[in-house]
Design goal:
Helices cover 70% and strands 0% of the residues. It has a single domain, classed as CDP-alcohol phosphotransferase transmembrane (TM) domain (Four Helix Bundle (Hemerythrin (Met), subunit A)). The chain has ten helices and no strands. Helix 4 (58-75) runs antiparallel to helix 5 and helix 9 (216-233) runs antiparallel to helix 10 (237-262). It is mainly alpha-helical and 269 residues long. The chain starts with 12 loop residues before the first helix and ends in a 7-residue tail after the last helix. The mean pLDDT is 88.
Length: 269
């Protein structure tokens, strides 16, 4: 008698992919980060294969993802290129582990609201801690009181705006649930504004996608590029330019995101 999928190990990577990476996962428009589509989903089954040999639960894997995310932010406290390079690697590793927790849950059939909640905790906290760390990098340490506190304040302000921007998407789901509307399908077109002018502006923004800079992966990438430039222009000047530019762009992205949501069918009855 064949054991249920949740109680046995996969016989091959192909079988593991079939069960844990169905089309509805690979074709998600919003939940699937571009790095997952580009290469992480090709690598994740090999790590998931190893994880399934242990007793770790899917929520335990999500806990690992959270710790890697926090470590990404902590790495940015190392001055210069070294900290930025370490954060770049850890940012990719966090997304790899993020792929694996869902795969472990799908294989063992242990998906739960707790797992979704922990996943949100991981991404929200990481993407709040990274800009705070960037503010500390920009201030340089030891701090020169009170002048350097302006940069740490900018870092905290950037963290707040990023978290608010992320929360808007979850607010949509809460609002729809409160209004008794069905859950939105994660596919292209659902987020398209119905107002023609706003839809055109949204499509134009894709050519200058600064609104995508605030995920942990993108933040670590641009921080690494800035650190390379810093070899020429100096530290912490380059870090100050970075956080100084990110904050107004983040505010613009927040306002644009809010307007796009209000103009879309996501919040319509």
């Amino acid at each position: 008698m064949t054991s249920p999928v949740s109680e046995r190990r996969p016989s091959s990577i192909a079988e593991l992919r079939e069960i844990t990476q169905p089309p509805e996962v690979r074709e998600r428009a919003n939940a699937e980060h571009w790095t997952a589509s580009l290469y992480l989903r090709d690598l994740s089954p090999y790590l998931t294969w190893w994880l399934l040999k242990t007793s770790i639960s899917a929520n335990g894997v999500t806990g690992m993802m959270i710790l890697v995310g926090w470590s990404t932010a902590a790495a940015l406290l190392i001055p210069g290129v070294g900290g930025a390079a370490l954060a770049l690697v850890l940012g990719q590793l966090q997304m790899l582990v993020d792929c694996c927790d869902g795969e472990v849950a799908r294989w063992r059939n242990t998906r739960s609201p707790a797992g979704v909640f922990l996943d949100k905790v991981g991404h929200y906290s990481t993407e709040a801690l990274i800009p705070i760390a960037l503010g500390i990098r920009a201030a340089g340490y030891p701090f020169d009181v009170p002048a350097d506190f302006a940069w740490t304040t900018i870092g905290f302000a950037l963290a707040l705006v990023i978290v608010l921007n992320k929360a808007l998407n979850d607010m949509v789901h809460v609002a729809r649930a409160g209004a008794g509307l069905p859950k939105l399908a994660d596919r292209k077109g659902e987020a398209e504004p119905s107002a023609r002018m706003i839809a055109r502006l949204r499509r134009a923004a894709r050519f200058v996608p600064f609104h995508r800079l605030y995920h942990s992966v993108e933040l670590t990438m641009i921080t690494f590029v800035a650190a390379l430039i810093g070899l020429a222009v100096g530290f912490p000047l380059v870090d100050r330019i970075l956080v100084g530019a990110l904050l107004p762009l983040a505010l613009l992205a927040l306002v644009g995101h809010f307007v796009a949501i209000m103009a879309s069918k996501r919040v319509r009855g």
